[in-house]
Amino acid sequence: MNVFLKYNEMKTEYKNEEKNKLKFLFIPSLSKNIITRKIITTEKAKIKRFLKIFILIPLF
Question: 6 and 12 in contact (C-beta within 8 Å)?
């Protein structure tokens, strides 16, 4: 019986975590900030990769 109670507690904790994630995504200003941060970091990574290739391969 104890095992079933523990299982139900874990299940409800997981559901609550998922609900909190969804609530966080539906707050417009926060979700926009998260999306823009991801876009900026990916663009920075692309630029760094390009510069590494540009520097490593000498142009003739």
Answer: no
pLDDT tens profile 1-51: 566 677 777 777 777 777 766 666 566 666 677 778 888 888 888 888 888
Q: How far is CA 46 from CA 25, 27, 37, 58, in A?
A: 26, 29, 14, 19
Q: How far apart are CA 45 and CA 56, in angstroms?
A: 16
This model's pTM is above 0.85: no
